[in-house]
Design goal:
Length: about 280
């Protein structure tokens, strides 16, 4: 049993992350924290009636985030959950920052498909590196559109060819070309509420629409090692090229250690009007 406030992936779990590109740790959120997150989600949806709950970007930024979403401090606090940081540290090292969060709130009956993709295709991080911690706020099953992955697809560390996709149909506007992977190899990531998964930036993944009567909400945290640079100039180019979310004013939070590459800017986006210091 892990000590309260600490968690460790077993050696076998670290090995699964390296081999498959995703691991579901034994550790799960305490009931009280899960309850707080679910209440925060109700507030987020209430505060943002014009934003689709399918993909709500950066609820941890108070105002001025992508989509003009009105966020709350509590989402940043959730991202600081020490046990999650401990496990992230085990897979990406002792120096890392939080650069993004998203709620994929996939509503009952109408939740959108997330196309097959690699996250790295539309992220301005060089060299490309990120560990995503996906927290199940509801149960996540094949019926309500759980995450699906192609195990081991991260190992070539190659960003494959994507095409533009319509956000009328999908949660994202980047869709992996069909001949870049074999869907027959797909595996479902089935989670109970409060379980989490950790996945690598090169992993091919997606999720089906939600045609069930049960919501499938997940809160995902994006952590990158500070040996990499969150390059805002490149981010501006990505935004121009693909209409992807705006990375120019995105605040960064150092979560552990120091800025190893010395290039990451921790001031941008932290003006009191825009974000929490
Ligand atoms: O929750 C989903 O359906 C998609 C999540 C995803 O693509 C991600 O976390 O990178």
């Amino acid at each position: 049993m892990a000590q309260a406030g600490h968690a460790r992936l077993s050696e076998a779990e670290v090995e699964t992350y390296r081999k498959d590109g995703l691991v579901v740790p034994q550790w799960r959120l305490p009931e009280s924290l899960l309850g707080q997150m679910r209440e925060a989600l109700d507030r987020l949806i209430r505060d943002n009636p014009t934003v689709s709950p399918d993909a709500m970007y950066c609820p941890h930024i108070m105002e001025g985030g992508c989509q003009g979403l009105r966020g709350r401090e509590e989402w940043l606090e959730f991202a600081r959950t020490p046990e999650i940081l401990d496990m992230v540290e085990q897979v990406i090292g002792p120096d890392f920052l939080l650069w993004g969060t998203t709620v994929f709130g996939k509503p009952a009956n109408s939740g959108k498909e997330t196309p097959w993709h690699q996250d790295g295709e539309y992220w301005p991080i060089r060299p490309l590196a990120t560990c995503s911690a996906w927290i199940a706020l509801d149960e996540s099953t094949p019926e309500n559109g759980c995450l699906r992955i192609i195990p081991g697809s991260h190992r070539t560390q190659r960003v494959r060819h994507h095409n533009l996709a319509s956000t009328d149909v999908y949660t994202l506007n980047q869709k992996l070309e069909d001949n870049e992977f074999d869907e027959a190899e797909a595996r479902d990531v089935i989670l109970e509420p409060g379980q989490i998964s950790l996945h690598d930036v090169y992993l091919i993944h997606g999720s089906m629409p939600n045609r069930s009567p049960k919501r499938r909400a997940g809160y995902v945290l994006r952590f990158m090692p500070t040996t990499s640079h969150f390059d805002r100039e490149f981010g501006a180019e990505l935004t121009r090229r693909s209409g992807a979310v705006d990375f120019i004013n995105r605040p960064l939070w150092l979560m552990r250690g120091v800025d190893r590459c010395g290039l990451n800017d921790f001031k941008v986006g932290h003006s009191p009007a825009l974000a929490l210091a």
